[in-house]
UniProtKB/TrEMBL annotation:
The keyword Lyase does not apply. The gene is pncA. Keywords: Hydrolase, Metal-binding, Pyridine nucleotide biosynthesis. This is nicotinamidase. It holds the Pfam family Isochorismatase. Coiled coil: none annotated. PANTHER family: LD05707P (PTHR11080:SF2), PYRAZINAMIDASE/NICOTINAMIDASE (PTHR11080). Its EC number is 3.5.1.19. Belongs to the isochorismatase family. One of its GO terms (molecular function) is nicotinamidase activity.
Amino acid sequence: MRALLVVDIQNDFCPGGALAVPDGDTIVTTVNKLVNVFDAVIQTQDWHPAGHSSFASSHDGKEPYDTVEMDYGTQVLWPDHCVQGSMGAEFHPELNTLKTQVIIRKGFRKAIDSYSTFFENDQETTTGLTGYLNQRGITDLYTVGLATDFCVKWSILDGIDEGFNMHIVEDAVKGIDLDGSLDAAWDEMKEKGVNIVTSDDLL
Ligand code: VGL
Ligand code: ZN
């Protein structure tokens, strides 16, 4: 069985938001069409407490997009974004969320960031998604959303490791692109075995 995985289409990742992905909002129309052709729809929501460790503002002398060494490795520092309960954390107002059956929130532990929908950035703490998918008999995830080079990429890499067939809808994702991270992400995903499709293939 297949499902649509809609990653982080939230106000803060769209133009005008705190961590805007260029043209992030332009995928919403396509995503809404896809939502209507899938029987299973899963969304993710970046959901940080104020003062989260991934925020540059939580580290003296650091600016957004600097990096810091955490217990679990190198972490990019971001502007404050997707703070629990804020407007920025809400889904884009035009995104159709009516058919969504489960929302996986991530990044809610202050000390660990979480890009992937499967594991937090320590690569150990699980979100529970693998169990949910297995219990529903979902084998194939069609991934759309933001940002290609962070949450989308890590979800796809981990999903493959977890044994799922991971597909990316190339015209329904947008990236941040820090120092070439977008091209690198496509290379990593291809190397790992992602299946690339377009929305036309599905509609
Ligand atoms: C994301 C950076 C920080 C994403 C989330 O959704 O790709 N990127 N938090
Ligand atoms: Zn975040």
